[in-house]
Design goal:
Oligomer: homotetramer
Largest sheet of chain A: 4 strands, antiparallel
Helix content of chain A: 25-40%
CATH class of chain A: Alpha Beta
Strand order of the largest sheet of chain A: 2-1-4-3
Number of domains of chain A: 1
Chain lengths: 133, 133, 133, 133
């Protein structure tokens, strides 16, 4: 199963709304179950450098089927996956990437958000993810 | 001046609608005046390989402020810009990329569409471009 | 739907057998419906440079849901998709890449073969594709 | 001397079997003595991001003729090879890559495994390596 464009655009719309509420312009990317880009939006005033980061966060979350922040914890110096960010053309391993599941629990894609503090990015990504029905 | 996300999403919405009318699922990308990705949508069933092509068409149209098909004409073997597609990490020089202008004629971004015949891509891109007010 | 490893390995086994019959060592790559590598084999004596070509042929066939040779025809100088090979990090647009369909006609992946004349590559790829049930 | 495809496929088959026993779907890559891809398999349900990691582990193990985990120890911050992962288009320096030797002790290739805990990856890689006669 794969995320539809309607679902992806619903996630982006929700994420934009949440980003507006906390007043932080964000880049928001959605990939499908094959980790291929499905939808994207850069809010007015959001960092240009976060285009790539938002996309990489979404890819990373789908590559390993977990929140990007979790990968960050286990890839610190001395930890088991130290250096993993050198794979796949560059991963982003701090918070803001979250897998998206279907109603029956299958992973159908992922959302990546970048533009604020990483906690804000994660909050907005989670809000967007929850908008997918 | 720069395209806003509202304008970019209006262009994508219009392009999706036109693509639906001609029954060809499309990838649609919008870049801003800095040639940086602003918004993107891949319609369900659209070619995976057209994600990159749609983005490169939008970039190419803004890089040179002309329709991508025009660049294609002057970059054929023997023509003056032969080989230009090797620049900028890869250009796409066939139709489907169109600059977007503001009401007063300033270029504020570009749209790139990929997924059908190049004439269809150009038609959908033009329709999306015209939706920007 | 997505190709399984069992199906992918059956395709490779069949392709290896056909390549052995025509006595041309081949590189054989299988990607899934998301164009991600699923299985690969390089026969003893096959060209090293064909590792990447076989993989790119499989990706290209899935990117556009058609035989790579078909893309080659419409991307010659003067044709509508001239220069398309500059997209997606490099396409291969000569024969040897073939989509793989499920029993009900859905594309579930693709096979790419490289190592011989392009007609031989296409023959071996088609034989491998037909081994998927 | 160089690993044969028969040997590489035997290593993959054994690694698949061991991965099945411990119930962790894995990506398994084999490179030859020239560090070029020889064979590959992604088990159903294995991480997409581990395609590249498995291949890079196999390459890394052959590049330096040692287990990837050993390279990880000497490339931590403050250690002598800190930053080595930036070479060769990206190395992977945590466990899961193991050189493969012929019966007379010559290195003929390497195996890289990714998909579980690094200890599991190393266990499966070692099991696959030992299947090469």
């Amino acid at each position: 199963m794969n995320i539809t464009l309607e679902q992806a655009q619903a996630a982006i719309k929700a994420a934009q709304q949440k980003a507006g509420e906390i007043d932080v312009p964000m880049n928001i990317a959605i990939v499908d179950s094959g980790a291929n880009l499905k939808a994207f939006a850069r809010m007015d005033g959001a960092w240009l450098g976060s285009v790539d980061i938002a996309i990489k966060k979404a890819e990373t979350a789908r590559y390993f089927d977990m929140d990007t922040g979790e990968i960050g914890k286990i890839s610190q110096p001395g930890e088991s996956l130290y250096g993993i960010e050198h794979s796949n053309g560059g991963l982003i391993t701090f918070p803001g990437g979250v897998p998206i599941k279907s109603a029956d629990g299958e992973i159908i894609g992922a959302i990546g958000v970048s533009g604020g503090q990483v906690e804000q990015d994660h909050e907005v990504a989670t809000f967007g993810m929850n908008a997918v029905k």
